[in-house]
C-alpha cells in the first residue's frame, strides 16, 4: 500500500514509540496543568507540526543532507539545545513563586504551540530518528520512495497527535483536583523545567 510493506507492524511500532513517555509528554502535561485542555491541545499540535517539518525534510532528502554535513548538523544541534535550555530555565523561574505560577496562566496558546513546534523542529535527533525508522517500511520496488516516506510519516504523526491529545484530555481531568494546590503545580513545573535542562545539555554534549 502506497509503496510500503508491513504497514500493520509500522503502525503498531509507531504507536508503542508514541506511547513511550518523553519530553513531549511532560511538555503537554505542564501546559495542561496550567492552562487546561486547550493548553495541552496547543502543545500537542505544536509538537505535531514540529515533527511534520522533519517528516517532509526526510521525504525530500533534506534530512540526509543535514546528517551528512557536520557543520549544518552542529549548528542546528546547538540552536536546538540552547532553546531547550531556555525553556527549562523559563519553566523553573516561572514556578519560583505563586505570582509567577499565576502569570503562567496568561501564556498565549499561540506561544505554547510555537514552543512545542520549535522544540521538535530544532532537534536534529528527531531527523535522525525518521531517517532510521521510516525507510525500513518502504518497499524498495516502489516507484516514488519520497511519497512512501511521506505517507508513513503522516501515519506516524497522526497516531502520535491523537495519543498526545488523549494525554492532554486525560491530564486535564486528572489535574483538576490539583489546580488549587499551588505547591504541587509549582514543583511539577520545576520538574519539567529540570527535564528540559537535562535534555538541552545532553543534546549539546552529544557527538554527531
Quick structural overview:
The chain has 208 residues and is mainly α. It has nine helices and no strands. α1 runs parallel beside α8.
Report the biggest beta sheet as strand number plus sense, adding barrel if it closes: none
Uncertain runs with pLDDT below 50, 5 residues or more?
none
- Treating each run of at least 4 consecutive H or I residues as one helix, how many helices? 9
- Cα distance, first to last residue? 34 Å
What's the count of strands? 0
Structural class: mainly alpha
Question: Number of folding domains?
Answer: 1
| Relative helix content | over 70%
Order of helices and strands: HHHHHHHHH
- Compute the average pLDDT: 83
What is Rg? 18 Å
Q: Strand portion, in percent?
A: under 5%
Shape: globular
Chart the SSEs and their pairings.
Elements: H1 7-19, H2 23-60, H3 62-68, H4 70-94, H5 98-103, H6 109-121, H7 124-133, H8 145-175, H9 182-205
Helix pairs in contact: 1-8, 2-6, 2-7, 2-8, 2-9, 3-7, 4-6, 4-9
